[in-house]
Amino acid sequence: MHPLARCRRPLLISLLGVAAVLPALAQDSAADIRALDLREQAIAFENGEGVPRNPALAISLYCKAALLGDPQAHYNLGWIYANGRGVPRDDATAAYFFQAAAAQGLEAAHRMLKIVGEPRTDVPECLRPPAPPRGPELSKGASKPGVDYQALAPRKILELVMKMAPQYQVQPQLALAIIAAESNFDSQALSPMNAQGLMQLIPETSQRFQVRNPFDAAQNIRGGLAYLRWLLAYFEGDIALVAAAYNAGEGKVERYRGVPPYQETRAYVQRIVRSVGTLVHPFDPSVTRPSPALALIRPAWRVN
Predict the structure, then answer these.
(1) Cβ neighbours of residue 134 closer than 8 Å, sequence gap 6 or more
(2) What is the pLDDT of residue 68?
(3) 98 vs 89, 92, 220, CA distance in Å?
(4) Architecture of domain 136-301 in CATH?
(5) Which terminus of the chain, N or C, has less C-beta within 10 A?
(6) Alpha-carbon dihedral angle through residues 265, 32, 123, 111, given to the nearest 10 degrees
(7) CATH fold of 3-127
């Protein structure tokens, strides 16, 4: 085994730290376990541990783990391309993977970025999300929404959305789809990441849109609608990009030139798009300038 390959294995959590991490592990255990299994298989095929060395299969397995949001898999892919392990050396591709790992908090990736230089601007093939499924509910024109939130939403929440959404130029169906996905209409919802209330506003977003009490339904919805209006202008009405940005952040959408390659975000986007029933939404261009990355995002991840 290459001596540095051993260093890239994940450290075991100490017994003293188990109690502290159990709540977070419970949230994402299935995806984490699957990603860890894929990564361990990839390490075996990369280094020939108990199986014949197979760099191509190792890369494929690492990519699958990366799509589940595993930062170590991103890092290991960067290492492979930076060192030409079974593939031609490609510093730009290596930098892309190191940048993704660094964005997820892997300190070693920051150091490697200083060595390999600038990342490529397009998404590597194995991380590109598939084009959204085509069908009547996903056409660019208006179509029948996939979910009847008027029958599902609590009356108080429905009335607030129906009253306030038009004030923010947001279609009620989009607002209700976001609320359903974020909090299941629970105004007291609180996530492990401190996202709060109906539309799960993090404190920074609440401050940005002047929400003083995120557990007050009206204030929270108002803040969420203001954010949606801004995202709609920033991504020029592209609902898939708006949903991805609401889930993962607009910076991640720009970095990955489209929907980020996280299983949670992809599932979230599909849910919102199908619930709303269209790929586009009217927007007010006076709210903000569009994302400077839009010209690169559109051809990279969707065929018009």
Answers:
(1) none
(2) 76
(3) 14, 10, 36
(4) Orthogonal Bundle (1.10)
(5) C
(6) 120
(7) 1.25.40
pTM of the model as a whole: 0.60
Tokens for 3, please give them: 């001596």
- Are 3-127 and 136-301 in the same CATH fold? no
User: Per-residue DSSP letters for 131-184?
Assistant: PPPPSGGGSSS----S--HHHHS-HHHHHHHHHHGGGGT--HHHHHHHHHHHHT
| Residue-wise pLDDT tens digits, 113-135 | 999 989 887 778 887 655 444 33
Active site residues: 182
Dist. CA 275–CA 263, nearest whole Å = 18
Q: CA–CA separation, 12 vs 243, rounded Å?
A: 35
Q: Is 124 in contact with 93 (CB distance < 8 Å)?
A: yes
Percentage, residues of the chain above pLDDT 90? 54
Q: Please tell me the predicted confidence (pLDDT) of residue 112.
A: 93
- ∠ CA 81-38-73 to the nearest 5 degrees? 35
280 SS3 class: strand
Taking CA 237 as the corner, what is the angle to CA 234 and CA 242, rounded to the nearest 5 degrees? 65
Asked whether the beta carbons of 236 and 292 are under 8 A apart, the reply is no
Enumerate residues 6+ apart whose C-beta is below 8 A from 270.
132, 133
The Cα angle at residue 259 between residues 86 and 247, in degrees rounded to 5: 125
Tokens found for residue 247: 């889930």
Is residue 279 within 8 A of residue 244, CB to CB? The reply is no
Contact (Cβ atoms closer than 8 angstroms) between residue 213 and residue 198: no
**Is 290 exposed, middle or buried, given 0-12, 13-18 or 19+ CB atoms closer than 10 A?**
middle
Domain extents for the chain?
Answer: 3-127, 136-301
